[in-house]
Amino acid sequence: MKIYTKSGDKGETSLVYGMRVPKYDPRVEAYGTCDEANSAIGLALSHVPQGEEWQELFSVCHIVQTKLFHIGAELATPAGKEVGWKIEASDVELLEKMIDKWDAELPALKNFVLPGGCPAGAGMHFARTVARRAERKAIAVAEHLEVNPTVIRYLNRLSDFLFVAARYVNQKVGKVEPTLHQDDKK
User: Fold this and answer.
1) Cα–chain center distance at 39
2) Close Cβ partners of 72 (under 8 Å, ≥ 6 residues apart)
3) What's the distance, Cα to Cα, between the start and end of the chain in Å?
4) What phi and psi, each to the nearest 5 degrees, are found at residue 6?
5) Domains of the chain by range and CATH?
6) CA separation, residue 48 to residues 86, 149, 169 (Å)
7) Rounded to an integer, what distance in angstroms lies between the CA atom of residue 137 and that of residue 157?
8) The predicted structure's pLDDT at residue 2
9) pLDDT at 78
10) Distance of CA 108 to CAs 12, 55, 94, 124, 176, Å?
11) What pLDDT does residue 184 have?
């Protein structure tokens, strides 16, 4: 089987169920941005040290990456068609559970945190910004087409999850978080 199909050479792609749309279609933008967020998470994880103490982070992020794939499928499914796996409230609840758990282990925020720290933490911050863009793209799609509202909630919570994950990773490896410069607060 060849990896290339040549079916997109004229600027169109297929949604689930074979419907053809331009590659700039808002649904393609939305699920493509979810794919970017997924890749950014994978890149961040490639910088996390190996070891049993990181197993929870890897396990939860694997679930998140799978759910981002599912969100892409939902966004690529034309109106009136059913997707095989819908994002559900329990998916959002898992993110909230992990946010609460990891945040309880972190020092209280006293300054704005700047993206950075160790490569894994900086990568989680980058993934957070891509998740925010995916959320904005999904909301734009929802303005004109039916979108599972839990998809929007999940993407919103995902950026919070990735923010806390970045802080958690930085603290666990002993890297001080960069914060807003004192002179910039005026």
Assistant:
1) 9
2) 31, 34, 35
3) 60
4) 70, 0
5) 22-78+86-173 (1.20.1200.10)
6) 30, 32, 8
7) 15
8) 67
9) 78
10) 48, 25, 22, 19, 14
11) 54
